[in-house]
Amino acid sequence: MRAVAETPVTLTLLTGESFTVDGHGYLADPEAWTESFADYVAREEGIELSPRHWALIRWIREQEADHGVMPDARFAMKYLGGARGKQAGREELFALFPYGYVKQAIRIAGMRQPRAWSTG
Fold this sequence. Notes:
Blueprint: E1 9-12, E2 18-21, H1 35-44, H2 51-67, H3 73-81, H4 86-96, H5 101-108
Antiparallel strand pairs: 1-2
Helix pairs in contact: 3-4
């Protein structure tokens, strides 16, 4: 059981865009995601999005669109590490999103909160 209620909340940005999020701030509908939403959540997390952040965010969204599920953290590490290897990808992932892949990267990418998760 989760500590925060699953009651949907409407979040309205200064841009005038409105989003429905759950009690943890994850989008209820990933199709509603915009870059403005990502910028807002990143600022709330204390993250300034760099080109490398955006590359991972777009990759997460593409993987979910192509496969119907969010990519696990170990695949994100492999993506980030490339020829440098999974360990380099792990280090970069936690440098980009220090409080975790699910809490930060997945939320910023506009995915739903996963029920169960492997951190790789």
